Amino acid sequence: MKTRFAVAAALLLAAPAAGQPVELPPVSYPELPVRANDAAGFVPAGWELLVRRQGDLNGDGARDLVLLLKMRDPANIVGIPMGHESRRLDTNPHLLLVAFAERGGYRRAAVNRGLFPRPTVPATGDMPPGEETIRLERGGLVVWFEHLRGWSSYRFRWQDGAMRLIGYDDSGVSGGCMTSTSINYLTGRARLTAGYIDQDRNRTVWRRLNHLHRPSLDEIELDQFFPEEAIAGEPLWCEAPAGG
Q1: pLDDT tens-digit series, residues 47-96
Q2: DSSP state of 233
Q3: What is the DSSP pairing of strand 77-82 with strand 85-90?
Q4: Do 162 and 93 lie in a common domain?
């Protein structure tokens, strides 16, 4: 979402007043087990289970697992100078796991650590990952983020041996203009909508995608993947009011 990145840039520019971006303590990500008898068997020492979801993700009728994990290392909680005070910033990383049910337990199908970049400033306006982040809908996995002035989501489905990205949606407000984007990677089309929040009229256009690059859940990294760059044409923005 372009609104989200504009807000993030503004926060970084204001960092001297709100605390300088910190240098992240190094972390070592564990190799999650290939197989486990239950959800607890996938949680490494020093990590906690934040969210657990169950549902059929590969079409075999069994209840698969989706787990959101977070490291709990006090060394990753750093102090940020804030004038005469100091604020504590939790930079512990997250892992997202998909495991398919099989006889006697579960088998690891996908692991992601790139959808949840570690924070470097104490206030970004983004809600931290939690219960609302992970959703199972219509046989797919939705990873949902709430931002300072909007939201975004990434939809994955098991295809061609991977949890493949099939959809992206976002909505946000900037300067009184609300914009939304909905990308369908299966049809190769995107719907863009824009309208002022104090007016009832919206503009909606459909655009094709210049390419159909669809990273898998294992591959996607949020700070290096920009879905709107695949949309043909110029970004849609609110039209100036008549006589304005």
Answers
A1: 999 999 999 999 999 999 999 999 999 999 998 877 777 788 999 999 99
A2: S
A3: antiparallel
A4: no
CA neighbor of 154 nearest in space, from 121, 112, 120, 122: 112
Query: Residue 163 sits in which domain range?
Result: 149-239
Number of domain units in the chain: 2
105 within some domain: yes
Residue 225 within a domain:
yes
Other C-beta atoms closer than 10 Å to the C-beta of 205 total 11
Determine the 3-state secondary structure of 242 from DSSP: coil
In which residue are the tokens 């049910």 written?
A: 101
- Structural domain contains residue 11: no
- Output the CA torsion 53→76→42→162 (10° steps): 70
Candidates 195, 189, 193; CA nearest to 227 is: 189
* 98 in Cβ contact with 217 (< 8 Å): yes
User: What are the strands of the beta sheet with 203-208, ordered from one edge?
Assistant: 134-137, 140-147, 150-159, 162-174, 177-184, 189-196, 203-208
On whether the CB atoms of residues 80 and 106 are closer than 8 A, the answer is no
Q: Could you identify the residue written with the tokens 């197989």? A: 35
Question: For 95-105, what is each residue's pLDDT tens digit?
Answer: 999 999 999 99
Could you say which DSSP state residue 32 is in? -
Residue 135 lies in a domain: no
